[in-house]
Each structure stands twice: as C-alpha cells, then as structure tokens.
C-alpha cells in the first residue's frame, strides 16, 4: 500500500485519490484567502520500484494570480517538472507536462520513500542550524526582532561592527515562503563572509556591516504556503503600511531598518517563470537619484565577473511599471532611504539558459554558490554608496 503525506517540513498537498499508483490525483492547497497557490511538497512511501503517475488536478488555478504582461514568457508549468529526492538532501529533476488544467509527472522511486516538491524545500531545522552556526562566530550578534502571528521568532544576524563610515547593508529573504532559493543563497553569503581566511570577506567587513534577516515569513514557511503569511497577507505588498495585527513580520523588519538606517538592501525572491537570475534597482520610485544608476551598474558588473550564473542584460519581466508599488520591499526601501541602493533579486525555479543543468535545473547547490559570489559584487558597490541612508 502506498502512502502520501504532506506532514513534512513545509509540506503542502491535498490527496484526492491515491488508490492506484498509475493514477494518483492530488490538489494544490491554496493559501489562506484562496488567491495564491502553486507550492507543493509531499512524501510518498511504499512505492519502491512501482511506476507512479501524479496529477496536480487544479494546477491551472495558479495561473489566475499570474503577474501582468507576461504573455511572452513561459508560465510556471511549461517546460519544467518537479524536483524529487530519496534522502531529503539531494534533489533531481523529473519532467512534467501541463494539459491546460492539470500538471502531470511520472516517476518510479528507487527506494521506499521519495519526496516531491515544486523546488527543494528549505526547512525550519536547516534554517535553525544555519542561524545557530553563524551566531557562534565572533563577528556575529543575533537579535530576535519580533514574533510572527503564530509566535515564531524573526531573527536578524548582525555581521561586523558598526563604526563611522561603515555602510549599513541589509539582506532579507523569504517573504514568499515557497521561494526557498533565498535560504540556500543566504547560507552561501554568510558562510563566505564569515570565512576569516577570505580576503574579500575581510575587506567587505572593513567598510560595511551586514544585517541579515533569513526568513521574514516563518509562519508561511512552516505551514507550506505559497505567497502569504498565515493571515493570507502577501507581505511583499505591505511595506507602505504594515499592520501589527495582520503583517507584524514586515512591521518588525521595517522598524529595525528605521532605527539602524539603510545604505544598501537586497530583497531575495524567486520567479517560477524566469530562466535566469535577475536583479533590478528601485529606479522608478519618487526619490530615485540618477547617481544611484552608476552604483547599480558597478554592482551588476562585479557580480557578472564573480559568477557566470549572473547574466546581465535581461529586461524587467513584462516591462518595468511606470509607477513603483511602494508596498513592495525593495521599492519602499529605495524610496524611504534616498541615498541607499535597494535591489530586487529573483532566482529561477526552472533551469537557466546559460550553463544549464537539465538533471537538476537551478539547484540548491547553485543557489548556495551564487550566494558565495555576492560579497564580491557588494564590495564593488559599497564604496560608491553615500553613507547612512536614513531619508
């Protein structure tokens, strides 16, 4: 007898019928509020050596919340497939097909247990190990800056020592819980910065202090949500007026930014339609200063030199909006702190067009290594930043 369970780290799926391995029917579970869905992670057991066919029967519902002006892009179900793992650590890619309604994939597990997911999960245990490991460095102090709606801590790592002239650089991730790429990316950043033998890391911390918030939405991560917190709020639309009752996660992060100041911020996301790593500055906010474009271009050139996984020249997907949505973190930060450079990062769910790896697609290992390249890009830009961007 086979068994399917979503009672795993960041698990999410509804089992409609698993009586026949050749026709397993599943449904994506919507976030609270019912607008967003698309994330899934579940465990299959008892199917070793058996050919299984899985249908996510309501996959087309995820397309109703698709961002505007994306008609020229593949949508999230096209030319891709889920990732699978027998040990929860090493993930490989399985082909999938979309018939206009359901997303279908087939697999014969080599072992008794196999996990399937939209992308490699980044569970709470790994996050806690990462934070605990980082805080043992003498370069790091840890602060719980607030609690989520369900009472989970929102941790912030301060790396380096504040001093006159040192730039205040923020890295935040996982406002959208399904975008687990940010967890692996941040591990790479922090591991590189805390390497005492790394000259780039030492040089960076001579001129900057890093404020790292690994998970802005811990409830969404724990509950296997796609895009919201447990109250059904899309946190990346709350920055212009976060509510302590409905979006305390943003409220707490924003409060610390106001108290500390911001000279640079990168907000880490992922996009399930793109085939590249994409970055963009908040250049259409009201307080944008033209001189920030030169800083961004220096940052972009340095990142492209540090990692072939950053390929410059990709346009804003669907076209840059004529007016900035100041409810989005990178826009609000770029507008509130006029001297600062605020950047959006989108990693892919699919594979990349440059140096693709079809057996895995974009993977945790590549996200981690991409994170390790980030300090070189930041170091190239930080000396060009006007200090203490407090608005």
> Describe the biggest sheet?
7 strands, mixed
Count of DSSP strands: 17
CATH class of the largest domain: Alpha Beta
Which overall shape is indicated by the principal axes computed on the Cα atoms? globular
* SS-based class: alpha+beta
CATH architecture field of the largest domain: 3-Layer(aba) Sandwich
Total of DSSP H or I helical runs spanning 4+ residues: 8
Query: Roughly how much helix do the residues carry, as a percent range?
Result: 10-25%
User: What do the pLDDT scores average to?
Assistant: 96
CATH homologous superfamily designation of the largest domain? Zn peptidases
CATH topology of the largest domain: Aminopeptidase
Describe the protein:
- With 391 residues, the protein is α+β, with helices and mostly antiparallel strands.
- It folds into 2 domains: 3-117, Sandwich (Immunoglobulin-like); 124-382, 3-Layer(aba) Sandwich (Aminopeptidase), CATH 3.40.630.10.
- The protein has helices spanning 124-135, 181-193, 199-207, 218-222, 248-260, 291-306, 329-336, 364-382, and strands at 3-5, 14-17, 24-27, 41-45, 52-56, 83-85, 92-93, 96-98, 103-107, 113-117, 140-147, 153-159, 167-173, 208-213, 264-271, 278-281, 341-348.
- A 7-stranded mixed sheet has the order 11-12-14-13-15-17-16, sandwiched between helices. It has a 5-stranded antiparallel sheet with strand order 1-4-10-6-7, with no helix packed on it.
- Strand 8 and strand 9 (103-107) form a beta hairpin.
- The chain starts with a strand and ends in a 9-residue tail after the last helix.
């Amino acid at each position: 007898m086979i068994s399917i369970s979503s009672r795993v780290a960041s698990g999410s799926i509804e089992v409609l019928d698993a009586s026949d391995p050749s026709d397993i029917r599943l449904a994506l579970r919507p976030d609270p509020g019912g607008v967003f869905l698309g994330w899934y992670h579940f465990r299959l057991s008892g199917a070793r050596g058996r050919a299984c066919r899985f249908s996510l029967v309501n996959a087309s519902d995820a397309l109703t919340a698709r961002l505007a002006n994306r008609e020229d892009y593949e949508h999230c179900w096209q030319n891709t497939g889920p990732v699978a793992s027998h040990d929860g650590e090493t993930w490989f890619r399985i082909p999938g097909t979309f018939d206009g309604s359901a997303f279908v994939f087939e697999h014969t597990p080599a072992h008794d247990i196999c996990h399937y997911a939209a992308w490699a999960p980044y569970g709470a245990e790994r996050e806690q190990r990462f934070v605990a490991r980082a805080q043992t460095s003498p370069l790091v102090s840890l602060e719980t800056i607030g609690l989520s709606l369900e009472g989970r801590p929102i941790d912030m790592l301060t790396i380096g020592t504040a001093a006159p002239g040192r730039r205040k650089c923020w890295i935040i991730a996982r406002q959208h819980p399904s975008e687990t790429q940010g967890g692996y990316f941040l591990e790479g950043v922090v591991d590189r910065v805390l390497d005492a033998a790394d000259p780039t890391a030492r040089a960076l911390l001579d001129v900057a202090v890093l404020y790292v918030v690994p998970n802005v939405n811990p409830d969404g991560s724990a509950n296997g949500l796609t895009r919201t917190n447990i109250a059904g709020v899309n946190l990346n639309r709350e920055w212009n007026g976060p509510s302590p009752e409905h979006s305390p996660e943003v409220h707490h992060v924003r409060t610390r930014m106001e108290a500390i100041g911001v000279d640079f911020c990168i907000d880490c996301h992922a996009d399930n339609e793109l085939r590249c790593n994409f970055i963009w500055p908040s250049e259409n906010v009201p307080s944008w200063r033209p001189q920030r474009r030169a800083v961004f271009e220096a940052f972009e050139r340095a990142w492209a030199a540090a990692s072939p996984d950053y390929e410059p020249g990709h346009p804003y997907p669907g076209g840059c909006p004529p007016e900035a949505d100041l409810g989005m973190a990178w826009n609000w930060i770029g507008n509130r702190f006029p001297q600062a450079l605020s950047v959006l990062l989108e990693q892919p769910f699919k594979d990349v067009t440059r140096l693709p790896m079809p057996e895995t697609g974009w993977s945790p290992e590549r996200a981690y290594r991409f994170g390790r390249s980030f300090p070189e890009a930041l170091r190239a830009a930080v000396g060009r930043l006007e200090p203490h961007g407090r608005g």
